[in-house]
UniProtKB/TrEMBL annotation:
<feature type="domain" description="Aldehyde dehydrogenase">
    <location>
        <begin position="26"/>
        <end position="490"/>
    </location>
</feature>
<dbReference type="GO" id="GO:0006210">
    <property type="term" value="P:thymine catabolic process"/>
</dbReference>
<dbReference type="InterPro" id="IPR010061">
    <property type="entry name" value="MeMal-semiAld_DH"/>
</dbReference>
<keyword id="KW-0520">NAD</keyword>
<protein>
    <recommendedName>
        <fullName>methylmalonate-semialdehyde dehydrogenase (CoA acylating)</fullName>
        <ecNumber>1.2.1.27</ecNumber>
    </recommendedName>
</protein>
<dbReference type="InterPro" id="IPR015590">
    <property type="entry name" value="Aldehyde_DH_dom"/>
</dbReference>
<dbReference type="GO" id="GO:0006574">
    <property type="term" value="P:L-valine catabolic process"/>
</dbReference>
<keyword id="KW-0560">Oxidoreductase</keyword>
<dbReference type="InterPro" id="IPR016162">
    <property type="entry name" value="Ald_DH_N"/>
</dbReference>
<dbReference type="GO" id="GO:0004491">
    <property type="term" value="F:methylmalonate-semialdehyde dehydrogenase (acylating, NAD) activity"/>
</dbReference>
<dbReference type="InterPro" id="IPR016160">
    <property type="entry name" value="Ald_DH_CS_CYS"/>
</dbReference>
<dbReference type="InterPro" id="IPR016161">
    <property type="entry name" value="Ald_DH/histidinol_DH"/>
</dbReference>
<comment type="similarity">
    <text>Belongs to the aldehyde dehydrogenase family.</text>
</comment>
<dbReference type="InterPro" id="IPR016163">
    <property type="entry name" value="Ald_DH_C"/>
</dbReference>
<dbReference type="Pfam" id="PF00171">
    <property type="entry name" value="Aldedh"/>
</dbReference>
Length: 510
């Protein structure tokens, strides 16, 4: 604050505060540590977000623990109907939610609606929980004996979410956790918590009872308190590999279940038999959409054989994309989330050039009329990229596309499997045999065949291989029902008058 004029400081102090949600009430944090939520296209201060105290985390967990006593026994139909109402409220408020999301995160309004919609689909799925949380029964496992399972909720579960999908990723977590009978503590990204909080308000309006959903804000201290808290039974994390690995280690050491979906370096392979126009359109959209700030962004493309001749056309497509604020009609590429993110991406571009990659298109310092203070980096394309170059070895998380080349499909598959990350990948081809080889041999969680960003819909689960994921079970879908429940196996026999006593038996048998 020291470099601000008095007027600027006064505007910032007057910004609304983001509240905590504890026991059904939105409350002001008592912390002394705050940060600003800033519009990345204009630098306008939109709000101030607290870094909650450990006592506030404790209070939120205690509220969840208390609410669990009744919520865990609430009828399936009652739980499901809340999510039926919730999906309706999200639809009715879509435009307002998208406007908040774009203001604090930067992506275009259309992409913000996509972010919300992909979360909404999980809410719809949660409304069908009656068909998802079913146990199994085997009749007559021994004479007169049946065995069955029940999937019981765990207790208080927690979720820690990243900045890049502030609607979708919280909605990956709390609807399914709550629908399965748990209570939930959410820790949204401190960079853009406002749309998440509006979604939380709507969840309460839909009928989620006090204490069933709680929210705290903050960074490392709050996350560590969540990992260590003895009354939290499971932690879901989505974010970078560095933080996710820390969360996984710390939470599991404290005896919790943990699922951590982490960083990426997603490669596409382009075979020369691919449909050229469709492929190049898909590549440009997947590399530069959301300014490359998607965990499923295609940031590396391996051109095989003759497909290497398509580079000029790909660069030409990248040049046509409009860079501006997400609220401006026709914008393709919005700003990066923060000044620090922009500086980091700019310096990785400089490093890529000095490492010897060929800078085909340099997106640094674009002129964006009306938004001169925005954190903009335009589409950037390198060719001749190799492992060992900074632009390949790091997840850039900006609109930077690295082009590599390979002689064959097998060579390209080996290159992808040698990268530490295994989040998403795509193959562009017209050959079914090549596609089958690819899906069999690639060690990556999400695989697209002529589909650039293959994020699974909610009847499946998001997944990941190698450094992109820790924990066995992924978010949403069938896997998350198993993650958020404990399987109890019941073996039962009933005696009636016709049962013949066999006396005391000391061997293991039914
Ligand atoms: P991040 O790891 O910086 O932050 C994620 C969460 O961790 C935030 O809530 C943040 O407050 C918290 N956090 C940050 N630093 C921490 C620390 N030192 N200790 C404890 N907690 C800390 O991630 P981000 O920058 O918000 O998001 C971008 C990253 O998320 C990228 O790496 C992207 O690939 C990844 N991501 C992955 C997926 C997936 O499903 N695999 C989806 C979206 C984003």
């Amino acid at each position: 604050m020291t470099n601000l004029t008095q007027g600027q400081a006064a505007i910032r102090a007057a910004a609304p505060t983001v509240k905590l949600l504890i026991g059904g009430k939105f409350v002001e944090s008592t912390t002394t540590e705050w940060r600003e939520v800033i519009n990345p296209a204009t630098q306008e201060v939109l709000a101030r977000v607290p870094f909650a105290t450990v006592a506030e985390v404790d209070a939120a967990v205690a509220a969840g623990k208390e609410a669990f006593k009744t919520w865990r026994k609430t009828a399936i139909g009652t739980r499901a109907r809340i999510f039926l109402k919730y999906q309706q409220l999200i639809r009715e408020n879509m435009k307002e939610l998208a406007a908040i999301l774009t203001a604090e995160q930067g992506k275009t309004l259309a992409d913000a609606e996509g972010d919300i919609f992909r979360g909404l689909e999980v809410v719809e799925h949660a409304a069908g929980i009656g068909n998802l949380q079913l146990g199994e029964l085997a009749n007559n496992v021994a004479g007169g004996v049946d065995t069955y399972t029940v999937l019981q909720p765990l207790g208080v579960c927690a979720g820690i979410t990243p900045f890049n999908f502030p609607a979708m990723i919280p909605l990956w977590m709390f609807p399914m956790a709550i629908a399965t009978g748990n209570t939930f503590l959410l820790k949204p990204s401190e960079q853009d918590p406002m749309v998440t909080m509006r979604l939380v308000e709507l969840a309460l309006e839909a009928g989620i009872p006090p204490g069933v959903l709680n929210v705290v804000h903050g960074g490392e201290t709050v996350v560590n308190a969540i990992c260590d808290h003895p009354d939290i039974k499971a932690v879901s994390f989505v974010g970078s590999t560095r933080v996710g690995t820390h969360v996984y280690n710390r939470a599991t050491l404290a005896g919790k279940r943990a699922q951590c979906m982490m960083g990426a370096k997603n490669h596409a392979i382009v075979l020369p038999d691919a449909n050229k126009e469709q492929t190049l359109n898909n590549l440009a959209g997947a590399a530069f959409g959301a300014a490359g700030q998607r965990c499923m962004a295609l940031s590396v493309v391996i051109m095989v054989g003759e497909a290497q001749n398509w580079i000029p056309e790909l660069v030409a497509k990248a040049k046509t994309l409009k860079i501006s604020a997400g609220v401006e009609a026709g914008t393709d590429v919005g700003p990066l989330i923060s000044c620090a993110a922009r500086e980091r991406v700019d310096s990785l571009i400089a490093q890529g050039a000095s490492d010897g990659a060929k800078l085909e298109l340099d997106g640094r310092n674009p002129a964006v009329a009306g938004y001169e203070k925005g954190n903009f980096v335009g589409p950037t394309v390198f060719s001749g990229v190799k492992p060992g170059m900074a632009v390949y070895d790091h997840e850039v998380f900006g609109p930077v596309l690295a082009l590599m080349s390979a002689a064959t499909l097998d060579e390209a598959i080996e290159m992808i499997n040698a990268n530490p990350n295994g989040n998403g990948t795509a193959l562009f081809t017209q050959s079914g045999a090549a596609a089958r080889r690819f899906q069999e041999d690639i060690d990556v969680g999400q695989v697209g065949i002529n589909v650039p960003i293959p994020v699974p819909v909610p009847m499946f689960s998001f997944t990941g291989s190698r450094a992109s994921k820790l924990g066995d079970l992924g978010p949403y879908g069938k896997q998350v029902v198993m993650f958020y429940t404990q399987t109890k196996t019941i073996t039962e026999r009933w005696f009636d008058d016709s049962t013949v006593s066999t006396g005391v038996n000391t061997t293991i048998t039914l």
